[in-house]
DNA sequence: GGAAAACTTGCACGTTCGGAAAAAAGACGT
DNA sequence: ACGTCTTTTTTCCGAACGTGCAAGTTTTCC
C-alpha cells in the first residue's frame, strides 16, 4: 500500500488520514454543529490553516472516509476482467464495499448525522454522484455503449448507487434485524428483475434471510 | 392558485418567486461564481438580509425553481387514485414534470452549471433526495409495504429519481438528437425490465427512437 | 552539502452567516 | 377610521469562514 511513495507523500497521506479520522471521531462524539475546524486541527497537532489545505469544510472531512471508499469502488470495477458479465462485476465490487471498516453502531450513528445535517448530506450525495459518473464510464466501456449516446450506462451506474444508498438507509433504521449484506443482495435482485410489484403484503419479509451468495 | 391567501401570504410568495427568478436569470447570464446575494436582492428591490431570510445561499435560490417542481411531483403522486398500478402512477406524474416551463436552451445551460459547480450540484442532489424520501412514503402506502421494513419502496422511489436524473443528464449533452420525453420513456422501460444487457453493440441506438408506449 | 521544490504556518483581507432590535406593513376588533 | 397586535423587512453588528500571500521549515534531488 505504502509502497514506492516518498517520505513526503506518505506524510501527506498520513495527515490527511489523521484529519478525517479525527473529524469523524469528534463528529460522532459531540455532533456536527458545535464542531469546529480548529478543534479537528488541534487534535492532529496541525494548524487550522493546514486543515483548510486538505479540506474546504468540516463536513468534507467528516465524509472523506466514505468518499475515499467510493473512489476505490470505481477503481476496483476498472480492474475486473473485461469479459465478465457487468452485473457480476458490479456485485463483486459493491458487496465488499459494504464493509466500511467501521463498527456497526458508529456507522449507523454517522448515517444518522448525514441524514439530518444538510451540509453533510449534500457532501455525501455529491460523492455518490462522482462515483456514478466514473462507473458509468467503465460500464459504457465494458458493454460497448456510449455515455453520451445511450442511456444504459448512466442508468446501470445510478442503479448500483441507489442499491447501496437504499440498503444503507434501510439498514441504518435498525428496524429490520437483517444484516447489511443481506439487504443489499435483495436490493440487487429486485433491481435486476425490474422491481416487480411485491405480491401484496410481504408481511414477514425479514424472516430468515436468504443466503446472499 | 392565489385563492384564500391573505395579502401578506401572497406578498411572501411573490418575493420568494421574484428572488429565485432573479437568481436563476442572473446565474444564467453571468455565471455562478461572480454572482452575489446582494445583486439578486438589489434586482428585486429588497435588502440583502431579506434574501437570506428566504434562502440560505445563492445556490439554494438558483435551484429553488427545480426544487419546488419536485415538491409538486410528490404531491401529484399522492393525488393519484390509490388502486392505480404504481408504475403507471409514477409515469403519470413524472412525465409531465419533464416540462420545466423553461426554454430548452436555458434548461441545458442550467444543467451545465449544476454539473460543474460543486455547491449547486450538492443543492440539486439534496432536493432529489428529499423528493425520493417523500415518494418512498407514498409508494409504501400504495403498495402495502413499509418504508422501515422493506427495501422495495426506497428502491422504487430512488429508481424513479435516477430515471429523471439520467435522462436529464443525457439529454443535456445534446449529443443525441432525441427529445427529453423520448429518452425518459426508454429509461423507464429499461428500468422496469431490470436493465437487460444491451444486445452487444447498439451501434445506432439513437436511430429513430423506439415507440415508447 | 546545497539548491530547488513542496508543505506548513501565521497574518490579513474580504465575504458570508445569523442574531437582536428597531421600523414598516398587514390583520383585526371596535 | 383608529389603535393595537402580529408578521415581515430592515439596519446594525459581531463571529466564523474562505483564501491569498510571504516567511519558515522539511523533503527531494543533484
TrEMBL record, chains A, B:
Which residue intervals define the domain HTH tetR-type in the entry?
A: 13-73
One Pfam family assigned to this protein is TetR_C_14
UniProt DNA-binding residue ranges: 36-55
Please state what the protein is called: TetR family transcriptional regulator
Coiled-coil ranges from the UniProt annotation: none
Tell me the GO molecular function terms. Answer: DNA-binding transcription factor activity; transcription cis-regulatory region binding
* InterPro entries reported in the protein's UniProt record: Homeodomain-like_sf, HTH-type_TetR-like_transc_reg, HTH_TetR, MftR_C
Which keywords annotate this record?
DNA-binding, Transcription, Transcription regulation
Q: Which organism is it from?
A: Actinoplanes nipponensis
Amino acid at each position: 500500500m505504502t509502497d514506492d511513495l516518498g517520505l513526503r507523500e506518505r506524510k501527506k497521506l498520513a495527515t490527511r488520514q489523521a484529519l478525517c479520522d479525527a473529524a469523524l471521531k469528534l463528529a460522532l462524539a459531540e455532533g456536527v454543529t458545535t464542531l469546529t475546524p480548529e478543534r479537528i486541527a488541534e487534535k492532529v497537532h496541525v494548524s487550522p490553516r493546514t486543515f483548510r489545505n486538505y479540506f474546504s469544510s468540516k463536513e468534507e472531512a467528516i465524509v472523506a472516509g466514505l468518499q475515499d471508499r467510493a473512489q476505490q469502488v470505481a477503481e476496483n470495477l476498472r480492474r475486473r476482467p473485461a469479459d465478465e458479465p457487468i452485473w457480476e462485476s458490479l456485485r463483486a465490487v459493491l458487496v465488499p464495499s459494504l464493509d466500511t471498516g467501521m463498527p456497526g453502531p458508529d456507522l449507523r450513528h454517522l448515517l444518522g448525522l448525514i441524514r439530518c445535517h444538510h451540509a453533510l448530506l449534500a457532501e455525501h450525495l455529491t460523492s455518490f454522484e462522482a462515483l456514478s459518473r466514473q462507473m458509468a464510464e467503465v460500464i459504457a466501456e465494458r458493454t460497448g455503449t456510449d455515455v453520451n449516446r445511450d442511456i444504459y450506462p448512466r442508468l446501470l451506474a445510478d442503479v448500483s448507487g441507489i442499491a447501496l444508498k437504499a440498503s444503507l438507509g434501510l439498514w441504518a433504521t435498525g428496524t429490520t434485524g437483517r444484516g447489511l449484506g443481506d439487504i443489499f443482495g435483495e436490493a440487487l435482485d429486485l433491481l435486476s428483475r425490474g422491481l416487480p410489484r411485491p405480491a401484496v403484503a410481504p408481511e414477514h419479509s425479514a424472516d430468515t434471510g436468504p443466503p446472499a451468495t
